[in-house]
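Appendix B. Chain record.
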Amino acid sequence: MSTDRAAKAPLAVIAAGGTGGHMFPAQALAEELLRRGWRVVLSTDERGARYAGGFPPEVARRVVPSATFARGGLAAKLMVPFRIIGGVVRAALGMLFDRPALVAGFGGYPSIPALAAAWLLRVPRLIHEQNGVLGRVNQVFARRVSSVACGIWPTDLPRGIEGVHTGNPVRQTVRERMAAPYIPPGDYPMSLVVMGGSQGARILSDVVPFALAALPDTMRQHLRVAHQARPEDLERVIAAYDAAGIPAEVAPFFDDIPRRLSEAQLVITRSGASTVADLTVIGRPSVLVPLAAAIRDEQSANARGLVAAQAAVLIPESQFTPETLAEQVHAVLSNPEAAQRMASAALSAGLPDAAERLADLAESLLAPR
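Structure tokens predicted for this chain:
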């Protein structure tokens, strides 16, 4: 982009936290706005900056302090208001120096400074909620923004707030696998992907290897598993798969999840919003285990659409045992026609153009030039 053109291009400040649930849709919007000729800045805190490696290099990083009352001891909690105020001041100074045309917040406490600064400076602003229930930060800003974009529909919104259903944008690496041909299960190697977020992976490690071990020999001998597990659980999960004679890759993180999903016959996972979006764009059958510890039970809300479309089986944590999971996995893998229908139903529940829809909404908020 030439210097003149760059100077005239509208600037979007994207404010997001340090989890994949916030960062992946933020990254997808950044990619789409860059395609449309925008300049993009990512506003996050130091923790969030460490998770921003997937953003295009054209996206500048602006690290501003923020904090949450949910972490640390008494001294840390006492410092929270001062850190947030410092972050708002720094974000506002950045906006005065290079005024954005739009600020888009994706939730999480690192988005507070940029959204608060945009409200003070009367910069057009929107928030995007990935889950079927508003997170705490988005609850605070829902009445202080021009528009509330919703990834899951319907989303539980405060009274008087109207949302716009855009869907959850997915990263370019996921879009490249959009509607990848599905190979139904059969008497050949079958891939299973097992994923849980940092808070919720332990129960999957406790249950999944033993459920798969309980499957009939004729099915078990064809399984190939990719299992994300917490670092402290790696050894015991590997040992469990070894004891069952199931080839398994076990790691805290896989950086090629879109490829693995596209090759999977079945996915066993938490129902985080970004995961659900990836499943609908690629189109894969799934067993969903919502995180019971989620305060607002947002993962159950996220799962509703896939379950209603008969693209997924939902197992609450209270019923998530090796016996129950083995029964459900067997039901999917022993019925290729049903598995194919689940894959097709997942595609029908998706909005692969969510990034474009969200970018359209963003551009609709701009003042006429």
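Further analysis of this model is presented in Appendix C.
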